[in-house]
Amino acid sequence: MSEIVLEIKALTRRFGAFTAVDALTLSVNAGEVFGLLGSNGAGKTTTIKMLTTLLSPSSGEARVAGFSITTHAVDVRRAIGYVPQAVSVDGSLTGYENLLIFAKLYDLPRREQQARIGEALDFMGLTADGGRLVGEYSGGMVRRLEIAQSTLHRPQVLFLDEPTVGLDPIARDAVWKHLVDLRANYGTTLFFTTHYLEEAESYCDRIAIMHMGKVDALGTCKELEASLGGSGHTLNEVFVHYAGSALDSGGTFRDVSAERATAQRLG
Amino acid sequence: MRPLTSFIEKTFVITEFELRKLRHDVTELITRALQPALWLVIFGQVFSRSGAMHTGNIPYLDFIAPGILAQSVLFVAIFYGINVIWERDLGIVQKFLASPTPRGALVLGKGFSAGIRTLSQTAVVYGLSLLLGVKLNWRPLALLNVVVIVVLAATLFSTFSLIIACIVKTRERFMGVGQVLTMPLFFASNAIYPTAIMPGWLKTISHLNPLTYVVDALRTFMLAGSTSSFGLSHDYAVILLTMVILVFIGARLYPRLAS
Questions:
Q1: Is the ipTM of this complex over 0.90?
Q2: pLDDT tens for residues B169-216?
């Protein structure tokens, strides 16, 4: 059996009377590609924020790479990479400079920094553009640079919050090609949220569907499709079944405006 | 790595991050230089001619030159929090906070970069003061002290601004609060008139205002033959202590931006 790299037990986050994440329990194996699906407002981003130590849980616990997110937050931060939904590289610096700053923040030895940055740019297909200002990059290039920046220190787990939101299909495929290579080459565990079902179907080893803060379904794509009974169900049908009707989805004003702003910046 | 060494190193990495941005776009340095120029050339000259301010042995223009430097540092630093909110709206704050960088280093590094950005204003105030006949102290040690105080003052006020940003969280609210705070900080200080002519209540407030000590220290080091009202060690102590307290509070509040 594979080693468990992410273990979540009854993780809960409340905002006043509203429970955004409700007693979430699941575990992810090392090297797994794990997709967290759900409509806007289902609790996906809140979950990722807790796992990346940006938000403390109201109750429950999670261990990332063996470290508790509540008592060993700095160790967790060393072991993970994080690509937020919003654009997280600086447009007024070059691609190389964005990587250099993070190489220094993650204490990469000085003599290794240049080689590691060169390798990361090469790996993400950005070698020719490393010296250009990021403000001139396309949306797909920005995302690839963000992934390069988040993986410079070779994290055990890479968290990605809606990594392909706002990208056209070609750019989305390119991002995924690089993510798949990252797992193949470095064994990085990928934990990501999306609401593009076809991405989850193509790339995930396992999927969890979240609805109103709870995981309603968990398993491989085939297991989820089979869970509806009968045969020939699609992941889309599974999603509608577990994540509820279109009427109660869509998230809050803040969710939607953040997502649209990201799409606009990358598009 | 030892925590203190790591803290200092990371602080300078964050400063480097901010300064690299400046290297790609120097227009900010030029626009910043305009404000002190206007205050010195127009306000300073007019009030100097009116003779309304009694500033002892020091001519009025000499008196306000250090005040205008302190004021331009304050006016630019106090809106620094807008950048922080902008970086939160992108995802930059979240990315930094998810890294193992100490929170205090993130806050202090940003503050220092604000400090280094104000050096262009210092150069402009010195240049104009020279043209306007202000009797400046050119001794290297005095100049070095001016640079240190300007950097510390900008760090102090930009960190104060960051704290406001962490509390109000939106640009609209921040602009309102920033404007409400700037003028009282400026007018309840010794920047453009001596505290001696203030009514008692305002004098008390001015003594609680860190800008007063920044101005006093700058006036002492910038002008030839000027002496400190409060004592230079007192000025330095107030500025440093306020800065340390604000950086500590800022480091506690900064993660709230990402949550």
A1: no
A2: 999 999 989 888 888 999 999 988 888 889 999 999 999 999 999 999
- The ranges assigned to domains in chain A are 30-65+156-267, 91-155
Question: What residues in A contact B99, CB-CB < 8 Å?
Answer: 77, 102, 105-106
Instruction: For chain B, list residues with pLDDT below 70.
Output: 1
Task: From chain A, pick out residues whose CB is under 8 angstroms from the CB of B96.
Answer: 105
**For chain B, which residues make up each domain, given as ranges?**
3-258
Interface test with A, best of B94, B106, B110 (most A CBs within 10 A): B94
Please report the sign of the dihedral spanned by the C-alpha atoms of residue A257, residue A260, residue A264, residue A266. Answer: positive
Of A55, A88, A106, the CB nearest to B259: A55
The nearest alpha carbon in chain B to A51 belongs to: B98
Which chain B positions have a beta carbon within 8 Å of A102's beta carbon?
99
Question: Which H or E run contains A160?
Answer: strand A157-161
Asked if residue A1 has pLDDT above 60, the reply is no
Q: Cα(A73)–Cα(A265) distance, rounded to whole angstroms?
A: 31
Query: What are the tens digits of pLDDT across the range A119-175?
Result: 999 989 999 999 999 999 999 999 999 999 999 999 999 999 989 888 888 888 888
CATH superfamily of this structure's domain A30-65+156-267: P-loop containing nucleotide triphosphate hydrolases (3.40.50.300)
Q: Which residue of A has its CA nearest to B101?
A: A105
Sheet holding A214-219, edge to edge: A80-83, A157-161, A189-194, A33-38, A206-211, A214-219
